[in-house]
Amino acid sequence: MAEHTQLIDAINIRTAVRAYDSEPIDDDTARQLEMALQPINLISDLDIQLVRDQPKVFAEANASGHLTNAANYLAIVGPKDDAEARERAGFYAERVVLTATLRGLGTLWVAGSWDRTEAARHCRVAGSQELYLAVVIGHPKDHLAYRAKSYEELCEIQRTHRPTKTFEQFTAPMDDAARAAAPDWFRAGVEAAMKAPSAMNRQPITFSYNSADDTAAAHIDPAAGDEHWALNDLGIAKLHFQVGSGQGQWAWGDGGLFIHK
Ligand SMILES: Cc1cc2nc3c(=O)[nH]c(=O)nc-3n(C[C@H](O)[C@H](O)[C@H](O)COP(=O)(O)O)c2cc1C
């Protein structure tokens, strides 16, 4: 694990982790995660909280075998009825996911495999806020063996563990000539977005490159059937694209533009 330290490395090895060891997240690791959360909450106007050792939240999924030993989570809390905050939640919580990945922790976004009411009992949700989603976090099952794997092995697992839409599908608004003419940073951004988590692996985001002003745009594809979590998945995909492309900044929103720096 020692050889990978960059966010792009985290993107290249992250997969959804559904089976965990029973070993708790220790105080030191929790403190480091909290330190990562503080600046993110400050700039995002979200209130992402680490909640440890509450297996009741996942009792049903753990009992059915869908999950194993899920007990800790990031509670993603943000302002009520705010579409842009939903997108920011995807963007910034995925940023925490990548930090956790670099620390050898496993993560899983959950919209369905949790007890939301039980989860809300263990975090702060003000009257003006709601609990959007959670991300399970913990030591992956057999984590010592996991940590012994090389970076290349972990990349290979990521590359092959699930189906993905193709680069052409991810850039559906473009034709072949436009794809060929797009700069390397655009291709690298899309390739990082192809590795992003999305609800039910629907991969509902497409990207396009506009040579006239050297910008990229991200779009929600209504045909992907992900209307419920599309804004969250838009935020996640934008974060992956930004890391993959090297440097630059997005405007929020469906159709928001990316300026590469
Ligand atoms: C918003 C969101 C909600 C999700 N909800 C669940 C869930 O309730 N249960 C589950 O097992 N996986 C859930 N996932 C994980 C996805 O199924 C997973 O990310 C997707 O299949 C892609 O696989 P990967 O994360 O390994 O790349 C969710 C992912 C996202 C982004």
TrEMBL record:
Q: Where is the Putative nitroreductase TM1586 domain?
A: 7-245
* InterPro entries, sorted: Nitroreductase-like, TM1586_NiRdase
Any Pfam family hit: TM1586_NiRdase
Q: Which SUPFAM superfamilies match?
A: FMN-dependent nitroreductase-like
Instruction: Please give one Gene Ontology molecular function term for this protein.
Output: oxidoreductase activity
Name the UniProt record assigns to this protein:
Nitroreductase
Whose protein is this, by species?
Bifidobacterium myosotis
Record lineage: Bacteria, Bacillati, Actinomycetota, Actinomycetes, Bifidobacteriales
